[in-house]
């Protein structure tokens, strides 16, 4: 267990000269006190004894307690250097900043080592970041999405495209939806909600209040064999995004990360 060795360790560090102040990583800028004191009283070092017994008993501090104490100590050193910017005060704070840099570096290296000890924690094992590998990975993802459309079509699913024929956005979306259906071989039926039919759809008719939807335009998956109805998308949607929606439905929205 880490005990209170931080302050002695910092004071024994060699004096740092001609260094630029380190950036803040964990801490906020100090607030200017309303009534600055000439000599702010530094926070007392935490006692390690239990005063309830005649003979003091030491106890270990948790990592959270140690960090809370260190935050207070650093804030005091920072405020002291700002209010009384002597060379000694600035050097003290610079040593603390260097100590933090070292701890941050140690944490980063331990993180890298941990990913080798337990590779399941690494994002790159499932999602490569190199450009060449990403091309292959993206191609595999697209293939899985396309297969989801084919699989659902084979299971008997088709698409209802619910639209308002008088809406310019719905009219613009219609040919894209028709092209998608033609490309992946899934049936498409357009249903007009306002009685205005769009001729860019191969098959369309008036809904006549038979099917209610929350919003239009809407794409609904329908399986006449099982009478299943599954909302696929609401609003304007690209073909790439629509392709992904099929994979979501086919996998029952299983997480892909």
From TrEMBL:
This is Conjugal transfer protein TraF. The keyword Lipoprotein does not apply. It comes from Shewanella sairae. Keywords: Signal. Residues 29-38, 47-59 have a biased composition (Low complexity). Residues 1-18 form the signal peptide. Residues 28-59 are annotated as: Disordered. InterPro entries: TraF, TraF/TrbB.
